């Protein structure tokens, strides 16, 4: 799967502290991963609110633990179509390779798994 260059550019900007988070998605033809939203709010709740309840997305969030740590969150809610979830799963490794500045990774299927407490704890532990 191709990854749009803006994904890498914006992820580097999150790493540098210019933005707090990114929301990424597949384009309409499911041929490329693209930036859907750049979030400048420091509020983690705003990031979670940008994850749709029934569609897959990837999130890149910049945590400030021992320097800036970028966490790739694979959002694959159970309400999403099965085919969409499978396509997302196969694309994750391509995205991970393209976003070299990612330090941590989390997979979530519901809002409990993407809560600040759960994700930040995994980032602090380095998992």
TrEMBL record:
One Pfam family in the UniProt entry: Cofilin_ADF
PROSITE patterns linked to this entry: ADF_H
Keyword Amino-acid biosynthesis appears in the UniProt entry: no
SMART domains in UniProt: ADF (SM00102)
Keyword terms: Actin-binding
InterPro entries (alphabetical): ADF-H, ADF-H/Gelsolin-like_dom_sf, ADF/Cofilin
Family that this chain belongs to: Belongs to the actin-binding proteins ADF family.
Listed name of the protein: Actin depolymerization factor/cofilin-like domain-containing protein
């Amino acid at each position: 799967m191709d990854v749009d260059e803006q994904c890498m550019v914006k992820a580097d900007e999150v790493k540098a502290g210019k933005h707090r988070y990114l929301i990424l998605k597949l384009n309409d033809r499911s041929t490329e991963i693209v930036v859907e939203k750049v979030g400048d709010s420091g509020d983690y709740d705003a990031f979670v609110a940008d994850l749709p309840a029934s569609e897959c997305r990837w999130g890149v969030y910049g945590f400030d633990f021992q320097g800036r740590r970028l966490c790739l969150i694979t959002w694959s809610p159970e309400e999403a179509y099965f085919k969409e979830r499978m396509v997302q799963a196969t694309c994750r490794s391509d995205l991970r390779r393209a976003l070299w500045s990612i330090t941590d990774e989390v997979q979530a299927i519901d809002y409990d798994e993407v809560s600040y407490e759960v994700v930040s704890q995994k980032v602090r532990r380095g998992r």
